[in-house]
From TrEMBL:
The active site is at E52. This is Riboflavin biosynthesis protein RibD. GO terms for biological process: riboflavin biosynthetic process. It comes from Pseudidiomarina aestuarii. NADP(+) binds at A154, W170, T196, D200, S222, G292, A293, E294, L295, A296, G297, S298. Binds 1 zinc ion.
Amino acid sequence: MTHQQYMQMALDLAARGSYSTAPNPQVGCIIVADGQVVGRGWHERPGEPHAEVYALREAGALASGATAYVTLEPCSHFGRTPPCADALIDAAISRVVIAQLDPNPLVAGRGVEKLKAAGIAVEVGVLESAARTMNCGFRSRMERGRPWLRVKLAATVDGRTALANGASQWITGTAARADVHDFRARSGAILSTARTVLRDNARLTARTERCEQQPLRVIIDSQGLLEPTASLFQESSPILLVQTAATPDRAVQWPQHVEVWTAPSTERRVDLQALVAELGRRQINDVWTECGAELAGSLMQEGLIDEWVIYVAPKFFGATGRGLVEIPIFSNIADAPKCIFTDVRQIGADIRIIAKPDTG
Ligand code: AOF
Ligand code: ZN
Protein backbone atom coordinates (compact mmCIF):
# COMPACT_ATOMS: atom_id res chain seq x y z
CA MET A 1 0.00 0.00 0.00
CA THR A 2 1.17 3.52 -0.77
CA HIS A 3 1.23 6.63 1.41
CA GLN A 4 -1.77 7.85 -0.57
CA GLN A 5 -3.76 4.68 0.06
CA TYR A 6 -3.15 4.80 3.80
CA MET A 7 -3.99 8.50 3.86
CA GLN A 8 -7.21 7.78 1.98
CA MET A 9 -8.14 5.32 4.74
CA ALA A 10 -7.48 8.05 7.30
CA LEU A 11 -9.61 10.50 5.28
CA ASP A 12 -12.47 7.98 5.12
CA LEU A 13 -12.32 7.66 8.91
CA ALA A 14 -12.21 11.45 9.30
CA ALA A 15 -15.41 11.76 7.23
CA ARG A 16 -17.30 9.78 9.87
CA GLY A 17 -17.16 12.91 12.00
CA SER A 18 -18.91 15.12 9.45
CA TYR A 19 -22.13 15.42 11.49
CA SER A 20 -20.53 15.81 14.90
CA THR A 21 -17.06 17.39 15.13
CA ALA A 22 -17.94 21.05 14.63
CA PRO A 23 -16.56 23.49 15.65
CA ASN A 24 -13.55 21.15 15.61
CA PRO A 25 -12.14 19.83 12.32
CA GLN A 26 -12.73 16.32 10.97
CA VAL A 27 -9.57 14.30 11.54
CA GLY A 28 -8.66 10.66 10.92
CA CYS A 29 -5.57 8.66 11.86
CA ILE A 30 -4.15 5.29 10.82
CA ILE A 31 -1.16 3.58 12.43
CA VAL A 32 0.79 1.18 10.26
CA ALA A 33 3.41 -1.30 11.54
CA ASP A 34 5.21 -3.65 9.13
CA GLY A 35 2.60 -3.04 6.43
CA GLN A 36 -0.32 -3.81 8.77
CA VAL A 37 -2.90 -1.31 9.97
CA VAL A 38 -2.67 -1.67 13.75
CA GLY A 39 -4.57 1.43 14.85
CA ARG A 40 -7.51 3.49 13.61
CA GLY A 41 -9.13 6.59 15.01
CA TRP A 42 -11.17 9.62 14.19
CA HIS A 43 -12.27 12.69 16.06
CA GLU A 44 -15.93 12.35 16.99
CA ARG A 45 -16.98 15.31 19.09
CA PRO A 46 -15.52 18.49 20.56
CA GLY A 47 -14.16 17.80 24.03
CA GLU A 48 -13.60 14.13 23.22
CA PRO A 49 -10.18 12.60 22.37
CA HIS A 50 -8.50 13.43 19.10
CA ALA A 51 -8.07 10.94 16.25
CA GLU A 52 -4.48 10.06 17.21
CA VAL A 53 -5.47 9.10 20.75
CA TYR A 54 -7.97 6.48 19.58
CA ALA A 55 -5.53 5.11 16.99
CA LEU A 56 -2.71 4.88 19.56
CA ARG A 57 -5.03 3.15 22.02
CA GLU A 58 -5.87 0.48 19.48
CA ALA A 59 -2.23 0.04 18.42
CA GLY A 60 -0.93 -0.31 22.00
CA ALA A 61 2.72 -1.50 22.07
CA LEU A 62 2.66 -2.00 18.28
CA ALA A 63 2.85 1.80 17.87
CA SER A 64 6.54 1.67 18.77
CA GLY A 65 8.52 2.19 15.55
CA ALA A 66 5.33 2.47 13.46
CA THR A 67 4.17 5.11 10.97
CA ALA A 68 1.15 7.33 11.72
CA TYR A 69 -0.96 8.80 8.91
CA VAL A 70 -2.94 11.82 10.09
CA THR A 71 -5.24 14.03 7.99
CA LEU A 72 -4.35 17.12 10.06
CA GLU A 73 -1.12 18.16 11.73
CA PRO A 74 -1.10 16.68 15.26
CA CYS A 75 -1.85 19.37 17.81
CA SER A 76 0.83 20.85 20.05
CA HIS A 77 -1.36 22.71 22.53
CA PHE A 78 -3.35 21.93 25.65
CA GLY A 79 -6.96 22.57 24.56
CA ARG A 80 -9.82 20.54 25.92
CA THR A 81 -7.43 17.60 25.45
CA PRO A 82 -3.61 17.26 25.77
CA PRO A 83 -1.28 17.60 22.73
CA CYS A 84 -1.36 14.72 20.22
CA ALA A 85 2.25 15.42 19.21
CA ASP A 86 3.29 14.44 22.76
CA ALA A 87 1.15 11.29 22.63
CA LEU A 88 2.84 10.21 19.35
CA ILE A 89 6.28 10.91 20.81
CA ASP A 90 5.49 9.00 24.02
CA ALA A 91 4.29 6.02 21.96
CA ALA A 92 7.66 5.99 20.12
CA ILE A 93 6.11 6.44 16.65
CA SER A 94 9.01 6.73 14.20
CA ARG A 95 7.36 8.49 11.26
CA VAL A 96 4.34 10.78 10.85
CA VAL A 97 2.73 11.43 7.46
CA ILE A 98 0.40 14.46 7.49
CA ALA A 99 -2.09 15.64 4.86
CA GLN A 100 -2.32 19.31 5.87
CA LEU A 101 -0.94 21.68 8.48
CA ASP A 102 -3.36 22.86 11.17
CA PRO A 103 -4.51 26.44 10.40
CA ASN A 104 -5.36 26.95 14.09
CA PRO A 105 -2.92 29.68 15.24
CA LEU A 106 -2.44 27.68 18.47
CA VAL A 107 -0.83 24.90 16.37
CA ALA A 108 0.19 26.16 12.88
CA GLY A 109 3.42 24.23 12.37
CA ARG A 110 4.29 23.76 16.04
CA GLY A 111 3.02 20.18 15.99
CA VAL A 112 5.44 19.35 13.17
CA GLU A 113 8.30 21.14 14.95
CA LYS A 114 7.64 19.20 18.14
CA LEU A 115 7.69 15.86 16.31
CA LYS A 116 10.89 16.72 14.42
CA ALA A 117 12.59 17.91 17.59
CA ALA A 118 11.89 14.47 19.05
CA GLY A 119 13.66 12.83 16.10
CA ILE A 120 10.50 11.69 14.29
CA ALA A 121 10.53 11.75 10.46
CA VAL A 122 7.71 14.00 9.23
CA GLU A 123 6.18 14.32 5.78
CA VAL A 124 3.48 16.89 4.99
CA GLY A 125 1.19 17.20 1.95
CA VAL A 126 -0.09 13.70 1.12
CA LEU A 127 -3.66 14.06 -0.31
CA GLU A 128 -3.54 17.62 0.93
CA SER A 129 -6.19 18.99 -1.39
CA ALA A 130 -8.81 16.39 -0.36
CA ALA A 131 -8.01 17.02 3.31
CA ARG A 132 -8.34 20.78 2.88
CA THR A 133 -11.69 20.41 1.09
CA MET A 134 -13.02 18.23 3.86
CA ASN A 135 -12.28 20.95 6.42
CA CYS A 136 -13.05 24.02 4.29
CA GLY A 137 -15.35 25.35 7.03
CA PHE A 138 -12.82 24.99 9.85
CA ARG A 139 -10.07 26.41 7.64
CA SER A 140 -12.23 29.35 6.62
CA ARG A 141 -12.97 30.27 10.23
CA MET A 142 -9.32 29.92 11.26
CA GLU A 143 -7.88 31.76 8.27
CA ARG A 144 -10.55 34.37 7.49
CA GLY A 145 -12.46 34.62 10.76
CA ARG A 146 -15.67 33.71 8.98
CA PRO A 147 -17.48 30.52 8.02
CA TRP A 148 -17.52 28.79 4.64
CA LEU A 149 -20.78 29.94 3.06
CA ARG A 150 -22.86 27.77 0.74
CA VAL A 151 -25.95 29.02 -1.05
CA LYS A 152 -28.58 26.50 -2.03
CA LEU A 153 -30.81 27.30 -4.97
CA ALA A 154 -33.40 25.26 -6.84
CA ALA A 155 -34.57 26.00 -10.34
CA THR A 156 -36.21 24.48 -13.37
CA VAL A 157 -34.18 23.62 -16.48
CA ASP A 158 -35.08 27.08 -17.75
CA GLY A 159 -33.52 28.57 -14.63
CA ARG A 160 -36.75 29.68 -12.92
CA THR A 161 -37.33 29.46 -9.18
CA ALA A 162 -41.00 30.35 -9.09
CA LEU A 163 -44.00 30.97 -11.27
CA ALA A 164 -44.82 34.57 -12.15
CA ASN A 165 -47.44 34.49 -9.33
CA GLY A 166 -44.73 33.53 -6.81
CA ALA A 167 -45.74 29.86 -6.36
CA SER A 168 -42.48 28.03 -5.71
CA GLN A 169 -42.58 25.24 -3.14
CA TRP A 170 -41.40 21.76 -4.11
CA ILE A 171 -39.62 22.40 -7.37
CA THR A 172 -37.34 19.42 -6.80
CA GLY A 173 -38.07 15.80 -5.89
CA THR A 174 -37.75 13.89 -2.62
CA ALA A 175 -34.15 12.71 -3.16
CA ALA A 176 -32.95 16.28 -3.69
CA ARG A 177 -34.85 17.40 -0.60
CA ALA A 178 -33.21 14.65 1.45
CA ASP A 179 -29.85 15.86 0.12
CA VAL A 180 -30.69 19.35 1.36
CA HIS A 181 -31.46 18.01 4.85
CA ASP A 182 -28.10 16.24 4.81
CA PHE A 183 -26.33 19.52 3.99
CA ARG A 184 -28.30 21.25 6.76
CA ALA A 185 -27.22 18.54 9.23
CA ARG A 186 -23.56 19.06 8.34
CA SER A 187 -23.77 22.83 8.77
CA GLY A 188 -23.34 24.89 11.93
CA ALA A 189 -25.91 27.43 10.82
CA ILE A 190 -28.73 27.84 8.32
CA LEU A 191 -29.10 31.37 6.98
CA SER A 192 -32.41 32.62 5.62
CA THR A 193 -34.71 35.60 5.56
CA ALA A 194 -38.09 36.43 7.07
CA ARG A 195 -39.52 36.61 3.58
CA THR A 196 -38.46 33.05 2.71
CA VAL A 197 -39.68 31.75 6.07
CA LEU A 198 -43.07 33.40 5.59
CA ARG A 199 -43.40 32.32 1.97
CA ASP A 200 -42.67 28.64 2.65
CA ASN A 201 -43.79 28.51 6.32
CA ALA A 202 -40.29 27.07 6.72
CA ARG A 203 -38.94 25.45 9.88
CA LEU A 204 -35.35 25.22 8.63
CA THR A 205 -34.41 22.25 10.79
CA ALA A 206 -32.32 19.29 9.62
CA ARG A 207 -34.77 16.43 9.29
CA THR A 208 -32.51 13.40 8.96
CA GLU A 209 -31.54 10.71 11.46
CA ARG A 210 -27.91 11.55 10.87
CA CYS A 211 -28.27 15.00 12.40
CA GLU A 212 -26.46 15.08 15.77
CA GLN A 213 -27.02 18.71 16.60
CA GLN A 214 -29.56 21.01 15.01
CA PRO A 215 -27.88 23.97 13.28
CA LEU A 216 -28.35 27.51 14.54
CA ARG A 217 -31.12 29.12 12.47
CA VAL A 218 -30.07 32.62 11.48
CA ILE A 219 -32.98 34.64 10.12
CA ILE A 220 -32.60 38.15 8.76
CA ASP A 221 -35.75 40.13 9.58
CA SER A 222 -34.75 43.74 9.21
CA GLN A 223 -38.35 44.87 8.72
CA GLY A 224 -39.79 42.99 11.70
CA LEU A 225 -42.13 40.80 9.64
CA LEU A 226 -42.02 37.60 11.71
CA GLU A 227 -44.57 36.68 14.38
CA PRO A 228 -43.81 34.24 17.24
CA THR A 229 -46.63 32.02 15.96
CA ALA A 230 -44.66 31.02 12.80
CA SER A 231 -43.78 27.30 12.50
CA LEU A 232 -40.10 28.26 12.71
CA PHE A 233 -40.48 29.14 16.40
CA GLN A 234 -42.38 25.96 17.30
CA GLU A 235 -39.14 23.95 16.88
CA SER A 236 -36.88 24.25 19.91
CA SER A 237 -33.46 24.51 18.22
CA PRO A 238 -31.79 27.93 18.63
CA ILE A 239 -32.64 30.90 16.44
CA LEU A 240 -30.63 34.07 15.92
CA LEU A 241 -33.03 36.74 14.73
CA VAL A 242 -31.08 39.42 12.90
CA GLN A 243 -32.54 42.90 13.03
CA THR A 244 -31.14 46.40 12.67
CA ALA A 245 -31.42 49.57 14.75
CA ALA A 246 -34.15 50.65 12.30
CA THR A 247 -36.30 47.49 12.74
CA PRO A 248 -39.73 48.54 14.09
CA ASP A 249 -39.88 47.79 17.83
CA ARG A 250 -43.06 45.74 18.29
CA ALA A 251 -42.34 44.62 21.86
CA VAL A 252 -42.66 40.97 20.77
CA GLN A 253 -42.16 38.29 23.47
CA TRP A 254 -39.95 35.76 21.70
CA PRO A 255 -39.60 32.21 23.06
CA GLN A 256 -36.47 31.38 25.11
CA HIS A 257 -34.58 29.77 22.24
CA VAL A 258 -34.68 32.99 20.20
CA GLU A 259 -31.89 35.55 20.49
CA VAL A 260 -32.37 38.91 18.82
CA TRP A 261 -29.13 40.35 17.43
CA THR A 262 -28.98 43.94 16.24
CA ALA A 263 -26.61 43.89 13.28
CA PRO A 264 -24.63 46.84 12.00
CA SER A 265 -26.50 48.23 8.99
CA THR A 266 -26.43 50.77 6.23
CA GLU A 267 -29.66 52.28 4.98
CA ARG A 268 -31.68 49.73 6.96
CA ARG A 269 -29.90 46.84 5.26
CA VAL A 270 -27.99 44.35 7.37
CA ASP A 271 -24.24 44.58 6.89
CA LEU A 272 -23.66 41.06 5.59
CA GLN A 273 -19.89 41.18 6.15
CA ALA A 274 -20.55 41.98 9.82
CA LEU A 275 -23.11 39.18 10.02
CA VAL A 276 -20.75 36.47 8.74
CA ALA A 277 -17.98 37.79 11.00
CA GLU A 278 -20.38 37.47 13.94
CA LEU A 279 -21.12 33.85 12.94
CA GLY A 280 -17.36 33.23 12.86
CA ARG A 281 -17.09 34.62 16.40
CA ARG A 282 -19.84 32.20 17.38
CA GLN A 283 -17.62 29.35 16.12
CA ILE A 284 -19.73 28.51 13.10
CA ASN A 285 -17.61 26.72 10.48
CA ASP A 286 -20.22 26.12 7.77
CA VAL A 287 -23.23 28.21 6.81
CA TRP A 288 -25.97 26.76 4.63
CA THR A 289 -28.07 29.49 3.01
CA GLU A 290 -31.61 28.95 1.75
CA CYS A 291 -33.02 32.21 0.54
CA GLY A 292 -34.60 34.08 -2.31
CA ALA A 293 -33.02 35.85 -5.26
CA GLU A 294 -32.50 39.06 -3.30
CA LEU A 295 -30.26 37.79 -0.49
CA ALA A 296 -28.47 35.42 -2.90
CA GLY A 297 -27.71 38.41 -5.15
CA SER A 298 -26.52 40.56 -2.25
CA LEU A 299 -24.26 37.82 -0.87
CA MET A 300 -22.86 37.35 -4.36
CA GLN A 301 -22.11 41.03 -4.79
CA GLU A 302 -20.46 41.15 -1.38
CA GLY A 303 -18.17 38.32 -2.47
CA LEU A 304 -19.38 36.18 0.44
CA ILE A 305 -20.41 33.04 -1.45
CA ASP A 306 -17.85 30.25 -1.34
CA GLU A 307 -19.99 27.56 -2.97
CA TRP A 308 -23.24 27.30 -4.87
CA VAL A 309 -25.37 24.18 -4.52
CA ILE A 310 -27.92 24.36 -7.33
CA TYR A 311 -30.64 21.76 -7.87
CA VAL A 312 -32.08 21.71 -11.38
CA ALA A 313 -35.51 20.10 -11.79
CA PRO A 314 -36.67 18.53 -15.07
CA LYS A 315 -39.50 21.01 -15.69
CA PHE A 316 -40.11 24.40 -17.31
CA PHE A 317 -41.72 27.45 -15.73
CA GLY A 318 -41.53 29.58 -18.86
CA ALA A 319 -40.22 33.03 -19.61
CA THR A 320 -42.44 34.80 -17.06
CA GLY A 321 -41.03 32.80 -14.13
CA ARG A 322 -38.58 34.28 -11.63
CA GLY A 323 -34.81 33.94 -11.85
CA LEU A 324 -32.20 32.70 -9.39
CA VAL A 325 -30.35 35.85 -8.33
CA GLU A 326 -31.08 39.54 -8.28
CA ILE A 327 -28.06 41.40 -9.59
CA PRO A 328 -27.74 44.78 -11.29
CA ILE A 329 -28.56 44.85 -14.99
CA PHE A 330 -25.55 44.64 -17.28
CA SER A 331 -25.39 44.87 -21.06
CA ASN A 332 -22.10 43.18 -21.84
CA ILE A 333 -21.83 39.40 -21.58
CA ALA A 334 -18.23 39.83 -20.47
CA ASP A 335 -19.62 41.42 -17.28
CA ALA A 336 -21.63 38.30 -16.35
CA PRO A 337 -20.54 36.83 -13.02
CA LYS A 338 -19.02 33.42 -13.71
CA CYS A 339 -18.66 30.19 -11.78
CA ILE A 340 -16.81 26.92 -12.12
CA PHE A 341 -18.71 23.63 -11.82
CA THR A 342 -16.83 21.47 -9.34
CA ASP A 343 -19.31 18.58 -9.07
CA VAL A 344 -22.32 17.66 -11.19
CA ARG A 345 -24.49 14.64 -10.50
CA GLN A 346 -28.03 13.37 -10.78
CA ILE A 347 -29.97 13.09 -7.54
CA GLY A 348 -33.24 11.26 -8.09
CA ALA A 349 -34.92 12.99 -11.02
CA ASP A 350 -32.97 16.23 -10.48
CA ILE A 351 -29.43 17.37 -11.19
CA ARG A 352 -27.21 18.87 -8.50
CA ILE A 353 -24.54 21.33 -9.54
CA ILE A 354 -21.89 22.39 -7.05
CA ALA A 355 -20.03 25.45 -8.25
CA LYS A 356 -17.61 27.99 -6.92
CA PRO A 357 -17.33 31.61 -8.02
CA ASP A 358 -14.89 32.11 -10.89
CA THR A 359 -13.01 35.15 -9.76
CA GLY A 360 -10.74 34.91 -12.79
C1 AOF B 1 -5.41 16.79 16.27
N1 AOF B 1 -6.22 15.70 16.11
O1 AOF B 1 -8.20 14.75 15.92
C2 AOF B 1 -8.12 17.09 16.08
C3 AOF B 1 -7.27 18.23 16.19
O2 AOF B 1 -10.25 21.62 22.24
P1 AOF B 1 -9.41 20.51 21.69
O3 AOF B 1 -8.38 20.03 22.67
O4 AOF B 1 -10.24 19.38 21.13
O5 AOF B 1 -8.57 21.12 20.48
C4 AOF B 1 -9.21 21.49 19.29
C5 AOF B 1 -8.16 21.92 18.31
O6 AOF B 1 -7.26 20.83 18.07
C6 AOF B 1 -8.76 22.26 16.95
O7 AOF B 1 -9.07 23.63 16.86
C7 AOF B 1 -7.63 21.88 16.01
O8 AOF B 1 -6.64 22.89 15.97
C8 AOF B 1 -7.06 20.65 16.68
N2 AOF B 1 -7.80 19.47 16.23
N3 AOF B 1 -5.94 18.03 16.25
O9 AOF B 1 -4.22 16.66 16.42
C9 AOF B 1 -7.53 15.79 16.02
N4 AOF B 1 -9.48 17.22 16.04
ZN1 ZN C 1 -4.73 16.64 18.95
